[in-house]
């Protein structure tokens, strides 16, 4: 991946090493999902990764927001055309 100046940047530079994971990407300990500390760490890692993606410009608008905006625009047009 390159930035706007054409310089190459490393992919996934902020991602932590896959500690505690098998090569397939799954956790080796089946009880780790019940550990509140591990759940907190996974959540904070996901939040940090999302913030990093957003700062790189990889953010997306949720589909429901786009659908709501479209419905509002269509509703306003119907209001203007038929009511006013």
Pick out its properties:
0% strand; elongated; single chain; 84 residues; mainly alpha; 2 helices
Give an account of the 3D structure.
With 84 residues, the protein is mainly α. The protein is 49% helix and 0% strand. The protein is built from two helices and no strands. The protein has helices at residues 36-55, 63-83. The radius of gyration is 21 Å and the shape is elongated.
Low-confidence runs of at least 5 consecutive residues: none
Oligomer: single chain
Structural class: mainly alpha
**What distance lies between the first and last C-alpha atoms, to the nearest angstrom?**
52 Å
Largest sheet: none
Q: How much of the sequence is in beta strands? A: under 5%
- Return Rg in Å: 21 Å
Brief synopsis:
49% of the residues lie in helices and 0% in strands. By secondary structure, it is mostly helical.
SSE blueprint and pairings:
Elements: H1 36-55, H2 63-83
